[in-house]
Recover the amino acids of this structure.
């Protein structure tokens, strides 16, 4: 029987790459989306072409009731769930000068709380593996994207706490990407420069992250720890987010 994984935010971008890599490696895929129904359907179709069973599931994870209902819906459809990859994320710019409760609340509801709710639901359904997508910024801090960074720091702490609370039937791990896809106001040239601002002169690709997720799913002795997949970016202190460092004056 093929294992089943729920990948949040897997209609497009990094979540899509993770979902399709896992589909090619023998996993059936629950494709979660919030508003990108057509893109989610395309991801599911491509996963089926790789031999997987795949279905789409729409939910606004910032809504506690919708988030709580998601994993039971996946179990009802597939009969079981073996893993959750918490990939869906909000990434909005703020800094200390314009920080607000509202910004913090939006990021907490998108990036932190859903991972806890879904891990708890997986544990209640019999256990399995949770992989949380973090960010190398936590090991190389700067004050840009303040609310986002704080929400990911909370998720990092939750990864440890959940690993303690849900053992032995549920493992909880993290993957921390570096510069992986063009995002925010960065243009293609800036992305190429940012991607090379690492000791290895290359940061992570979607394929790198997908392979790391699969490794953790297949590693029964690993819990409560995070793989940094960033070309070594976390090893060099940076005063600002790499988006700004990559801009030409």
């Amino acid at each position: 029987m093929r294992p089943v994984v729920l990948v949040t935010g897997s209609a497009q971008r990094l979540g899509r790459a993770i979902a399709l890599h896992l589909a090619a490696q023998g996993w059936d895929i629950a494709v979660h989306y919030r508003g990108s129904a057509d893109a989610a359907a395309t991801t599911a179709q491509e996963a089926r072409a790789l031999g997987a069973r795949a279905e789409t599931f729409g939910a606004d994870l910032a809504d506690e009731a919708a988030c709580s209902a998601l994993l039971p819906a996946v179990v009802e459809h597939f009969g079981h769930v073996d893993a959750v990859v918490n990939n869906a994320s909000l990434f909005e710019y703020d800094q200390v000068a314009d920080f607000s409760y509202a910004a913090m609340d939006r990021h907490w509801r998108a990036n932190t709380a859903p991972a806890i709710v879904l891990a708890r639901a997986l544990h209640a359904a019999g256990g399995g593996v949770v992989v949380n997508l973090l960010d190398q910024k936590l090991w190389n801090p700067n004050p840009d994207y303040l609310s986002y960074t704080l929400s990911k720091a909370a998720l990092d702490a939750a990864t440890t706490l959940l690993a303690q609370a849900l053992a032995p039937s549920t493992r909880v791990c993290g993957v921390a990407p570096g510069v992986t896809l063009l995002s925010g106001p960065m243009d293609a040239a800036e992305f190429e420069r940012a991607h090379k601002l690492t000791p290895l002169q290359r940061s992570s690709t979607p394929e790198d992250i997908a392979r790391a997720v699969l490794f953790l799913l297949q590693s029964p002795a690993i819990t409560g720890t995070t793989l940094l997949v960033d070309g070594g970016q976390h090893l060099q202190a940076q005063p600002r987010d790499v988006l700004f460092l990559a801009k030409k004056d």
